[in-house]
Amino acid sequence: MSIGFTIHPRPRKVDDATVARFKAIAVANISDSMNRMAHGGPRLRPLHAGGVLAGAALTVRQRPGDNLMVHAALNRAGPGDVLVVDAGGDLTNAIMGELMLAHAQQIGVAGVIVNGAVRDSGWIRANALPVFAAGITHRGPYKNGPGEVNATIALDGMVIRPGDLIVGDDDGVVCVPIEQADEVYAAASRKQAGEADTMAAIKAGTVDRSWVERALRDAGCEGV
């Protein structure tokens, strides 16, 4: 085995029904339901025309500035996969651009996340393929390796295992471990329903904000 230069099998993968359910849940509500302990970092911003990202993680750990193993992952990607690339957050070289992203879109990839830079931002902005990245640069990548496909990676502390659920929207991206998906969905759905009720009360002018004063008193704030 070549350490750090391996294509691993993906032993499991979140099912399509679970992915479909999470498309209707805001990332912020998913995050809150996971005790705000999971996040992909504030630098991973959506660059595409708009729309929700949801699918099963196909992970890549790639040497900064190189995209050979991203190409290897694309050759193994299928419909509904989310290509999650950890390129160390380096912005010196773009890891993906229009040609690779167009191919990903054509084969049904659900979206792309690059902890690093991309290029051809005009194409990305004009297309619905969800693309999240840490930055943009015109300078292209090398193709020498090493790297790994379907390895466990971490983006700003958020651990992502191959096949885990990935969800992204305008607020960023979050990973939901497969074994926690049902529990998180139930909690996030309740939170989203509660927020809908609060918004209705705000619009009606009947929202109750007495909890703020109670919290101040309970915390010992003077002058309440």
UniProtKB/TrEMBL annotation:
User: What Pfam families does this protein map onto?
Assistant: RraA-like (PF03737)
The cofactors required by this protein are: a divalent metal cation
| Region forming the signal peptide | none
Q: What is this protein called?
A: Putative 4-hydroxy-4-methyl-2-oxoglutarate aldolase
